Amino acid sequence: MQHLYKQIYADPEFHELEDKRGRFSWCLASIVLLTYFSFILIIAFAPQVFATPVFENSIITWGIPVGLFVILLSFVLTGIYVYRANREFDRLTKDIIEHAKKIHNEK
Amino acid sequence: MKNSKITCLIILFLPITLYAADALQGDVTKQPLNVTAITMFLLFVSATLGITYWAARKTKSTRDFYAAGGSITGFQNGLAIAGDYMSAASFLGISGLVFASGFDGLIYSIGFLVGWPIILFLLAERLRNLGKYTFADAVSYRLKPIPIRSLSACGTLCVVLLYLIAQLVGAGKLIQVLFGLEYQFAVVIVGILMILYVTFGGMLATTWVQIIKAILLLLGASFMAIAVMSKMDFSFEALFSNAVDVHEKGLAIMAPGGLVSDPVSAISLGLALMFGTAGLPHILMRFFTVPDAKEARKSVFYATGFIGYFYILTFIIGFGAIVLLVNNPEFLDSQTGGILGGNNMAAIHLARAVGGEVFLGFISAVAFATILAVVSGLTLSGASAISHDLYASVIRHGEAKEGDEVRVSRIATITIGIIAIFLGIIFEKQNVAYMVGLAFAIAASVNFPILFLSMYWQKLTTRGAFIGGAIGLVTAILCMIFGPTIWVDILGNEQALFPYKHPALFSVSAAFIFIILISKLDKSKSAKQEAIDFEDQYVRSQTGLGAEGAANH
Q1: How do residues A25-54 score in pLDDT, each as one tens digit?
Q2: From CA B138, how far away is CA A45, in angstroms rounded?
Q3: Pairwise CB contact (< 8 Å): B308 & A71
Q4: Going by C-beta distance under 8 Å and a sequence separation of 6 or more, which residues neighbour residue B409?
């Protein structure tokens, strides 16, 4: 197994995949982190923003739709990630492993 | 089987007559003997004991015991994870928080939820590919097992005990209201049942109990939310304005307020909820019950959907409780003017208000089932920290016999169960959702930093992870002890030495800073080797090559 690991680590395609996957996951993660911590920071420093009604005379305040949006966003982003990872990334990973095994067996 | 059912019946009914005398003091109409609830609860208990019996026969190897043989599908695991999350603390605690302070309840829900995408994007696959039964497997892949596993086990046990306390407090309160039983007695029943499930049925029983309960709870909560909304003609405007009219805080329940009063607490709580999720041992353990990384990903997707939906329901339920319960003397304590059994009981009373005695019975039985399912998962993860991390790896240096490891695990289960029962009784008066917050702070300050850095930072060394993680743990615990909750509320001192309720901001930062600092200063030979081994670990974590597969049954 160790040989195979080394083999794959030396494969530029592996690093290309990792760059792509890494960028994708960190990008999604930053969206979640930014949204969530903006939410928390507003609560901490400017709670009155969330206390404003969504439109005049409405009892519903901005905090509620924003909160629901954060919940929905989390769900949608996990869906997007799983969709791409289960199709594109898994296929590329499989190719890389097979390629490495082939070279390994030829040696 | 038959005998155990009869014993259960006796255990359940005997004390009702014994304690009826206490309950008689003016409260008798409020706590009638609820036959529906008891029947439904007994049905659930017999069904789950049946599952345990089935699981016990299938559980042979260590892998069966800790990880259900890797045989759970992504969808099933998603339900089970959601089940772990939709604990009594969430269901009763968050609807209780919404009932008490409105919008603030949503802050907790969102914090609990947003940890999930982060786990998926950054941790889930790597963890699945590196680990075997506990998250410490992944961390000690290239770091020295003895210090790393000892520390992870400490972190795990603290989290498990705190979380268990929260669940048991919920159980005690619930049964007090429902059956009129004494608090201590309820805690003991839950403790015994959880010990039975885990000791005999292992992860397989624990998972299926969790799945069944998750489905029941989702159905019950959906019904309640729909019933509330139908009374409001499906208008949120009507729901909120009615709530504002009757709530003593008035318009303040529509805005962030009381619960998180200062910025430091807000950020600290946010950190604890988000990164704590990523460090909860009983949840991380669920990633080893699926066959591969692909199913692990799917389980997070389903779990996030179920959990998000559930939190929206609890929000509606909390507001529904304000509208329907606040001015209804039937649900109020005649002496204090507050709600019977405390705010955590809001959802339970609402069940009666919208669905009558039969539905109250159903929801109470489900809430009780929830507690049983969650405490079982927790106990199993605590027991595996003792048997797999401490016993098999630290004491026997990885050479324990399979049978011995499982036996130690069973003994550990019983011990943890008994300790939890005692602590549950001591912590009776605490708000249960808040206790969960504390468990999250420790998970975020110990488990999460070492797990995250071991996967993402090549230069992490054993020394750095151990000392830094220990500092995180100690900081979190000390801040808790000297904080307002324990130092003032429990120990009765006048002023807290540490002013904030939520220590995560300080303890998580301390953990990260010291782990990085000490790793950088570590010039030892083993530190160099650990950096070299990172390459192998990286390939395995990203490709799944050499990862634990599904067991062949």
Answers
A1: 999 999 999 999 899 888 888 888 898 998
A2: 39
A3: yes
A4: B65, B66, B383, B384, B386, B387, B388
Give the model confidence (pLDDT) of B451-468 as tens digits. Answer: 999 999 999 999 999 999
B470 within domain boundaries: no
**Residue A50 is encoded by which pair of tokens?**
């969330």
What does the H/E/C string look like for A43-80? Answer: HHHCHHHHHCECCCCCCCECHHHHHHHHHHHHHHHHHH
Q: Residue B113 falls within a domain, yes or no? A: yes
Cβ-based neighbour number of residue B317 at 10 Å? 26
Question: What's the pLDDT at B5?
Answer: 38
| CATH code for the domain of B71 | 1.20.1730.10
Inter-CA distances, B59 with B56, B376, B378, Å? 5, 16, 19
> How confident is the model at residue B425, as a pLDDT?
85
Query: What residues of chain B score a pLDDT lower than 50?
Result: 1-30, 550-553
Using CA atoms, how far residue B29 sits from B24, B180, B299, B353, in Å, is: 9, 11, 45, 15
- With an 8 Å Cβ cutoff, is B125 touching chain A? yes
The amino acid that residue A3 corresponds to is H
Q: Who's near B80: CB < 8 A, 6+ residues apart?
A: B72, B207, B210, B211, B214, B286, B289
- ipTM for the complex? 0.93
| pLDDT given at position B89 | 65
Give one DSSP letter per residue of B89-158, joined into a string: IIIIIIHHHHHHHTTHHHHHHHHHHHHHHHIIIIIIHHHHHH-SSSHHHHHTTTS-HHHHHHHHHHHHHH
Round to whole Å and give the CA distance between A56 and A52. 9
**Over the stretch B298-324, which tens digit does the pLDDT of each residue have?**
999 999 999 999 999 999 999 999 999
How many structural domains does chain B have?
1
CA distance B164 to B180: 22
* Cβ <8 Å between A82 and B256: no
Nearest CA in chain A to B245: A59
Distance in angstroms (rounded) separating the CA atoms of residues B227 and A12: 58
Looking at CA atoms only, how far is residue B81 from chain A in angstroms?
15
Is residue B109 in some structural domain?
A: yes
Yes or no, beta carbons of B297 and A81 under 8 Å apart: yes
Question: Which residues in chain B (231-250) have CB-CB distances under 8 A to chain A?
Answer: 236-237, 240-241, 244
B262 touches chain A (CB under 8 A): yes
In this structure, the number of other CB atoms found within 10 A of the CB of residue B426 comes to 11
**With b meaning 16 or more CB within 10 Å and e meaning fewer, what string describes A51-84?**
beeeeeeebbbbbbebbbebbebbbebbeebbeb
The more confident residue out of B70 and A80 is: A80
Domain of B190 in residue numbering reads as: 42-443
Do residue A28 and residue B121 have CB atoms under 8 angstroms apart?
yes
Output the six-digit token pair for A105: 């067996």
| Min distance A11 CA to chain B CA atoms (Å) | 11
Q: Tell me the C-alpha to C-alpha distance, in Å, between residue B107 and each of A65, B98, B112.
A: 13, 10, 9
Decide if B496 contacts B483 (C-beta within 8 A): yes
What is the spatial distance between Cα B384 and Cα B136, in angstroms, rounded to a whole number?
A: 11
Residue B11: per-residue pLDDT: 33
Report which of B56, B48, B111, B1 is spatially closest to residue B366, judged by C-alpha positions: B48
Nearest to B426 by CA among B344, B493, B491, B379: B491
Q: Is residue B437 part of a domain?
A: yes
Q: Name B385's Cβ contacts closer than 8 Å, sequence gap at least 6.
A: B134, B136, B152, B153, B156, B157, B160, B281
| Rounded Cα distance, A17 and A88, in Å | 10
Gap from B506 CA to chain A (nearest CA, Å): 17
